[in-house]
Amino acid sequence: MVRYLAMAPVLFTALPGIREHPQLVLAIVGLSAFAFNISKGIGLTAIKPIVGEIPPQRERGSFISNQQLISHLGAIGTGLVMAWLLGPESALGRYTLLLAIGILAGFVAASFILRLPEPEEAGHGFDARFTDGLKRAFRSRTFRRLTVVNMIAVFVGAMAEAFLIVYFKQIYGYGDQSIVVFAVAGSVGAAAMAILSRAVIDRTGAKPLLFAFAAVFALILVPVAIAPPVGGVWVALFPALVYFFFAMGRFGIFTAADSYFYSITGAEVRLDFGIVFGLGSGVAGTLGSILGGLFLSGLQHLFPSHATLPFSIYFGVAAVITVFAVVAILRLDDVGSMPMPDALGILVSPRDLRAIRLLNRLQRSRTEPEEQMAVRALRQSTSVLTVDELSHRIQSPSLLIRMEALNALRDAPLTRVVEDLLMTDVRNHMFTTAQLAVELLGAARVRRAIPLLRDSVTSPDYLVSAKAMLALAQLGDRTSIPRLEEQLETTPNARVAIYAVKALETLGSVRSLPLILRALSGTEEPFQRDEYILSCARLLGFFDWFYALYLEFLDEPREGLRSLVDAAAEASEETARFAAAFAAAIDAEGSELRELVEHYLTGREITVGMISVASILRESLSDATLLSLERFRFLLLAALIALDQPSQSDSVVYNQR
Q1: Average pLDDT of 524-542?
Q2: Alpha carbon of 230 to those of 220, 237, 545, 583: distances in Å?
């Protein structure tokens, strides 16, 4: 409130009687501006304890960024209106009107501040002596370093900001209206900073952003120091870009520094530390303006015949000073921040920025449908950033949210914490999401989950049992083969039986072929028979060659059989004759086919993975039910043809004598 009251006397300088006394006008404006800035400094110090208690800690950075965004969006609108009202030639009355509107807006804003709650914990700081607070603040090495960084940034900001206007007016000849437009470009840059900072600061931490914005701030001073000649579109673009990135870097530093300040201070010391922090900013800003003016004036007197050189030296020195701040930032502790390379990688990665946008959407969700939709949107993200946030959703009391979170983690790299949560889900969420957790553990090859997966093979939840067997196979746990075979023998559930066979297939357990063939004989479901036959083909090593022929056989048995006989023609002459005889007797009694196959196998030894396949096939011939199945007969003939042609098999170890 005092801040805007201090500016009220400036309105009277528009009166004719006062305007006739320039020294009086200068005194009123000077004193009002001094009181305005003193009040501003006190107000900014008092804001820190309030802001420290309003948002939760994990959202404090984005809250500060939102404040900046609102301020700079307002500045953009105000700047555009001012540029339109002032025009090329501006009357004094227009300036007075704009100033009056600004003071009135300040009173309205102050009325809202009065409604904020008093920060009780921070209020205790008023009881301490200022010198005690000063000593306590500077005992903290981290706070000292932050204060130095902030003071350098404020010093250079004050040093450069005031004279950017002079620079563009004197070197490039821009008028007042153009300068206002370029200031709007600066506000756009600050707003862009706030949008970026709001999105990432609570995830990357304040230090990486502090470094990034300080680097931008230093780099943008380099072209200003060079003062290149401009023409064409660059007449408008060059100063606009300078103001854009200057404001982005400068206000980005302040935003990140404030966020870092909150991360290293508790509520009980925030007022004392805030006073010291604000005092440092005030001293640095004052020195930057005064010393900057003296330095530039001295350069202009030293090089009176060079219009550009004094400004080049001036802004070059400012850039060099900023580099010291960048170096000092690297020495700050990583308080709540990612490692610098990881964080900077995120800032230039479209994939990670998109993931952060989705994560922020998830964090802002307040209803189950909103949360579900946000988690679902994260499915397409492969960023490692999604893992930690989604891990919290694995523990959600909502079945739908847990399912979406688990599905979203399918392609994400799992951390040890997430692995633990998945194993907990397997134990606690049977019949709901446990099977999804089992699937993820297997796909991620989490070997420490093997004991849990072994126990889950006999789970009453048939989906958990099925997925656990496949997960063990993915983990290469051959010790579990007896468990899988037992499940295949005893389960009445078709899905569990199929998964048991698929797991044995994945493990390459050729020894399990007799058991799979018995299961084939014992089922009447065509879909189960198909699964078992395809698994047998893969175990025997000729799946790729067999699959297309089998599809043809299912669609048109006679055509499939003819294609199989044609394929036998590429084998030995004996195999070709056998295939033709087998095809001719395909509908004959089982005994006739048995004799035909046994005669063909006489004197032959076929092995796959050191296992005698010939013996397994001979043994299967004794099962009348199995031999009566048309699908099995097709598989049998295909096996005998393929195993006589190693080129048609995928991975068969073949030996014939």
Answers
A1: 94
A2: 16, 9, 70, 87
